[in-house]
Design brief:
The protein is of the alpha/beta class and about 325 residues long. It has one domain: Divalent-metal-dependent TIM barrel enzymes (TIM Barrel). Helix content is about 45%, strand content about 15%. The protein has 13 helices and 10 strands. The strands form 2 sheets. It has an 8-stranded parallel beta barrel, surrounded by 5 helices. Helix 10 links the parallel strand 9 and strand 10. Helix 9 runs parallel beside helix 10 and helix 10 packs across helix 11. It is globular.
Length: about 325
């Protein structure tokens, strides 16, 4: 069967409770986690966290191991340690810690190259403020761009994808929206620098996912798509299409219309659910949305949308799902 997109899954979703404790002790079993993913129809890869999944004697990450399992490592997610970077990553008030943040990213770039992975996703989680007047925004912005530029210059052979989140862990993030992140990427001007949109993060920012994706796709800057679902207040990480199915369908419409060529990454938290079953559900949901759009009368859909006919669209959706 040919799938509409390459699908990847969040590595930590597949760790058992005991396995999570083992990883914290540096005794994680990468092979065992990959084995849980192998065999899921349509799933082709995962993303690891750096440096989380590269520490401890038990965590032997290698391109050979991925080749053996058939699960591809598409890229790495940057995770700046809370203890060191609580006041900021690239925008930290300490020049020494800002330099350490850049060096940590460069180590992640090197790890990507060794694994044959083509993407590094940078989520500057600690760049932001908790109080008014806590920091000078212009200084923070300049430091942010300097850090991103240093990593982009070091990795011309990789896609560097910036992931925004409006808040958490900081009360207000520096890169807090699609528009702010696109602005930073425009100002920097690197060809290898783009965005990763996380569906729950977009909902938290009170944005319309399809509209956010459209702006990024039109500029050729949508490098990654983290799919999940939620209620819009927190980073819920629920199975896709379970809370906002019509908004998800609309997003898929734009991804297919603009021929998104990245990976669909299921960034979900299957608490109390079997991760294998949840991943299979996510793939099935995505394929169902794609088929619904393919079966829609495209001329009718185009006409209804050109007329902003909400009732007509609702009827069309009901017919498609009947």
């Amino acid at each position: 069967m040919t799938y509409h997109f390459p699908y990847a899954v969040r590595f930590n979703s597949f760790k058992t409770q005991a396995g999570a404790a083992a990883w914290k002790r540096g005794e994680g079993d990468l092979r065992a986690v990959l084995a849980r993913m192998d065999g899921i129809a349509g799933l082709s890869g995962t993303y690891l966290n750096f440096p989380e999944h590269f520490t401890g004697s038990g965590n032997q990450v290698s391109s050979r191991l991925f080749a053996e399992t058939g699960i591809k490592c598409y890229g790495l997610n940057m995770r700046f340690p809370d203890a060191a970077f609580g006041l900021g990553d690239f925008s930290n008030p300490s020049a020494e810690l800002r330099a350490q943040a850049v060096e940590l990213c460069k180590r992640a770039v090197d790890a990507c190259r060794e694994l044959g992975a083509g993407e590094l996703i940078i989520w500057p989680a600690h760049d932001g403020v908790d109080y008014p007047l806590q920091a000078d925004y212009e200084t923070m912005w300049n430091h942010e761009l300097e850090g991103l530029a240093a990593v982009a210059e070091y990795a011309p052979d990789l896609r560097l994808s910036v992931e925004f989140k409006p808040s958490e862990p900081r009360r207000r993030s520096l890169l807090d929206s699609t528009a702010t992140t696109l602005l930073a990427i425009r100002q920097l001007g690197f060809q290898n620098l783009g965005l990763t949109l996380d569906y729950c993060h977009v909902l938290m920012a009170k944005e319309q996912p399809a509209m956010s994706a459209m702006h990024c796709l039109k500029e050729g800057k949508l490098f990654g798509m983290h799919l999940n679902d939620g209620h819009g207040c927190l980073d819920d990480g629920l199975a896709i299409g379970t809370v906002t199915p019509i908004e998800t369908l609309e997003l898929v419409h734009y991804l297919t219309q603009y021929r998104f060529d990245g990976v669909i990454y299921f960034d979900t938290f299957p608490v109390g659910a079997d991760p294998v079953a949840e991943c299979a559900l996510n793939i099935a949901q995505m394929e169902r949305f794609c088929r619904l759009l393919e079966h829609a009368d495209q001329d009718r859909l185009k006409t209804l949308r050109s007329e902003h006919d909400a009732i007509g669209i609702a009827r069309l959706l009901a017919e498609l799902q009947a």
